[in-house]
C-alpha cells in the first residue's frame, strides 16, 4: 500500500513570515484560510453584500500592506484581520453617509433599486438580529472592534488586547462601557431576563 506524505498545513505565523518577504502564495493561503470569517463580520457591519465584499477586500489589502507589523494572537492573524475589518467598515460607512448626503441634493427621476432583500437573505444566514446589528453600527470603531473580538468571536480579553495593540485593561473598560450602554437597547437579549421568565 503506497504511503501518502501529506505536508502539515503551515501555521499563520509561518505564512506571515513568508508574506513579510513578499511571498504571494503565502498571502493567498492566509486569504483562503480566513476569508469566510472576515466576510461574515463585514456582512454584519455593512448594509449590502457588495459593501461587505469591499470591506473584506480592504482588510486583506491591509494585511498585505502592513505585513511587517501585523500582530499574531496565538499564532493566528484572524484577530488582527477582524479588528481591521471593523475599522474598514466604519470608514466605509462614514464615506457612504457623505456620498448619500451629496446624492440627496441632486434631483433624479425614477426609483433607485433597493438591495434590502439581498441583504435580508444574507443576514438571515448569519442569525443576527437587526437590533444587534443596529447597536453595533452605533459604536465607535474602537468599541466595535472590542465587541467583535470579545463577544462575537469570543476571544479572551488578553488576546483581543494583543490584536488591537492596547492594554488588556483598556479592552476590559471599553467592553464594560459598551455593555452598560447597550444593556437598555438590547434588554430582550439579556440571558437573566430569560431565566426570570422560565
Automatic annotation (TrEMBL):
Residues 131-182 form the RNA polymerase sigma factor 70 region 4 type domain. Keywords: Sigma factor, Transcription, Transcription regulation. One of its GO terms (molecular function) is DNA binding. It holds the Pfam family Sigma70_r2. One of its GO terms (biological process) is DNA-templated transcription initiation. It comes from the Bacteria. Residues 31-98 form the RNA polymerase sigma-70 region domain. Belongs to the sigma-70 factor family. ECF subfamily. This is ECF RNA polymerase sigma factor SigW. The gene is sigW_1.
